[in-house]
Amino acid sequence: MAGVVVVFDFDKTILDCDSDNWVVDELGISELFTQFLPTLPWNSLMDRMMMELHSRGKTIKDIAECLKHAPLNPRIISAIKSAHASGCDLRILSDANAFFIDTILKHHGLIECFTEINTNPSFIDEEGWLRILPYHDFSSHSHGCSSCPPNLCKGLVMERIRASLPAEGKKNIIYLGDGTADFCAGLKLEEGDFLMPRKNYPIWEITCTNRSLIKAKVHEWNDGEDLETILLDLINPFFIEEKYNVRSSTTDRMVLAVECKFLTSSIPAHEASSNSTLPVP
Ligand SMILES: [Mg+2]
Ligand SMILES: [Zn+2]
């Protein structure tokens, strides 16, 4: 189902906490982090904190072990796996960094579900220090967006994602996030797309006060259970449409999904099992 592209923020969306804060707190450098925070952009500060960990004898393995324990709701794991199994094109757009995201997704068996991870690049230098670089090189020029941090404008990346999609056939984008920069990405959504802001998080407040700026349909979510239910409800009609070659408008899709669910639930088990399965919300 290449017609649906699902773009996830990572921290406080897929992961229940912020991976940067998690590592800083768990490895005992919170005080230093707070002390440096007013003096450096967040992304540069994280690079500096990795140097600090290195100088305190913490290895890459220690950081990876710490990341593996970061809280991730099992319903979000199943939501990602179901969306992937339905054929959706899943991507990540995050202000964390490549090493943190790769480590966590691999640990939970999710890395293969994603076609693209857009985030701050990272590498391990010859001394074993994890280096974290900005997504946009802001030392030479600014990306010009005042809503996003200097190292990454999510709106710009969303524009690039849309431009990279194949020209034939309308692609619908579903975007999920919690932060201010996620709202910047949401502004790039079009009619037929869906924005899933996390309720009572910064994106939610901004979406409520600037609703007219968002062209996409808005479906808020609270927790992993909500995320799974809403995301799969949004995806299901596209799946049915493609599988049974039914054309429908966006507004008809919810009705179609309900009818198809009713249809499958009324089929006796032995017949249903010989049918190809519908994604289970
Ligand atoms: Mg986030
Ligand atoms: Zn921006």
UniProtKB/TrEMBL annotation:
Needed cofactors: Mg(2+)
GO function term, MF aspect, one: metal ion binding
Protein's UniProt keywords contain Magnesium: yes
InterPro entries: HAD-like_sf, HAD_hydro_PyrdxlP_Pase-like, HAD_sf, Pase_PHOSPHO-typ
Pfam name, any one: Put_Phosphatase
Binding sites annotated in the UniProt record for substrate: 20, 95
Keyword terms, alphabetized: Hydrolase, Magnesium, Metal-binding
Active site annotation, chain numbering: 9 (nucleophile), 11 (proton donor)
Record-listed Mg(2+) binding positions: 9, 11, 178
UniProt key word Magnesium: yes
Protein name, UniProt field: Inorganic pyrophosphatase 2-like
Biological source species: Juglans regia (English walnut)
